[in-house]
Design a protein that fits this description.
This protein is of the alpha/beta class and 279 residues long. Helix content is 42%, strand content 24%. The chain contains 14 helices and nine strands. Strands 1, 2, 3, 4, 5, 6, 7, 8 and 9 form a nine-stranded mixed beta sheet that branches.
Length: 279
């Protein structure tokens, strides 16, 4: 499917879902409690982090991107206008905002974790990405001492940089129990630390690691990327655990997507948005 047609398809999902049915507003008294509450307020408030994360969401004013399109499709299915709340510093803050009722749901490149699932419910994933490490080449050579890189990765005991307030803090402790986990405020800080050797490696999903070569080709020369085949990052919509009917509708919207977003498709979208196709 051509990349540039995908956004219009996502926006059309909610519009066709309820054709010929009685509008939800007319059925307000018979709706499940979670839908009735949304209908009474008259809008769907969607949470996102304040930092741009293209191609998922970015831009001043009204954001644009994959997560924005999915949010609008959900709003259309619910027959509600969408309002975005980007007042959250970290991804964990977004999840906490759902649990506290600050927002109705989140389309904010949210990774599923068991810890987060204690607070909110997650939809079916609309993105599945492998975990990836970006090693400082010199540090990797020192750690390997002739061993295969896969062996180094499996038993890694060095330092790993991650973004604070993200799922990668949890993932790092789970998958690399003997490593030293170092938290940074932003992903660019993690990259800079890996390039300089302040940490031995940075840790995130394969898309974010691969796009370093697009954004910072000079820095990428000093890094070696290792994808972890048996570890997956599942990106899902997060909703309150008290909203089962909303969750069912969100799953229907995701089911209607032509195909899951892959790392290759995300890279193509990112190149198109950033104008980096020639790099």
């Amino acid at each position: 499917m051509p990349v540039m047609n995908r956004r219009s398809l996502v926006r059309a999902l909610g519009a066709v879902a309820l054709t010929g049915l009685t509008p939800l507003r007319a059925l307000a008294q018979t709706l499940p409690p979670d839908l009735a509450a949304l209908s009474a307020r008259g809008k769907l408030v969607v949470g996102m982090t304040e930092a741009d994360t293209p191609p998922f969401f970015s831009g001043p004013g009204e954001p644009h991107g994959i997560d924005v399109d999915i949010a609008h499709a959900i709003g259309a299915a619910l027959e509600l206008p969408v309002e975005f709340n980007r007042g959250f510093k970290t991804f964990n803050d977004v999840v906490n905002g759902i649990a506290l009722g600050t927002v109705d749901l989140a389309t904010s490149k949210i990774s599923r974790t068991f810890k987060r699932s204690r607070l909110v419910s997650f939809s079916k994933p609309y993105v599945q990405l492998r975990h990836a490490l970006m090693f400082n080449r010199l540090r990797l050579a020192q750690a390997a001492r002739g061993r295969d890189v896969a062996d180094v990765t499996r038993t890694f005991e060095g330092s790993i940089g991650v973004v604070t307030g993200s799922a990668w803090v949890t993932f790092a402790h789970e998958h690399f129990p003997h490593a030293k986990v170092v938290e940074f405020e932003t992903w660019p800080e993690v990259i800079a630390a890996a390039v300089s050797g302040s940490v031995d490696a940075g840790y995130r999903d394969e898309f974010e690691v691969r796009r370093i070569a697009i954004d910072q080709p000079d820095s990428a020369i000093n890094l070696r990327t290792v994808a972890i085949a048996d570890a997956r990052d599942f990106i899902s919509v997060a909703v309150p655990w008290t909203a089962p009917q909303v969750l069912a509708i969100v799953d229907q919207v995701i089911d209607a997507l032509p195909q899951p977003y892959t790392a290759d498709l995300l890279i193509d979208l990112y190149r198109a948005q950033s104008g980096a196709a020639g790099h």
